[in-house]
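As agreed, record copied across for absentees:
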Amino acid sequence: MTVDRVFNVLVLCTGNSARSIMGEALFNFIGKGKFKAYSAGSHPAGQVNPFALELLQASHLPVEGLRSKSWDEFAGPDAPKMDFIITVCDQAAGEVCPYWPGSPVSAHWGFPDPAAVEGSDADKRRAFNSTLHGMANRIREFASLPLASLDALALKHEMDKIGQQAIDTTDRR
């Protein structure tokens, strides 16, 4: 991997309505051109969760082009070749994934589903906020790795290590 290239990242979840959408936005923002992120789901919900969109906008993260879509869009011959695949929900991590052209390095970074939180809108917003900060911290750590100087095995090890850490929801902006 060369230093001056853009790395393609696919963030997967079952519904592609909240966590994977937030991961796509965060990778594109935190990566500052180092990453081109996409998101998809095995069984897409068909719409982005309104709490996810609200939080992304309130956090001044780009939301243009975010949509719930199937991972099939990224498995075909005309799809961008992924360098990294990251699952963010336990259900998607256990599913049989399509063949990803280019042999991307994959890892599982599980996060609780904020869309499953019941209660008041304030409770739901807190859950989304917690997930966003946890994801941002893991993505910042990943973005700080010397990607161009690590081989696939070392990258896999580092990605797995990031995914096994306790979820830190502290806002580190």
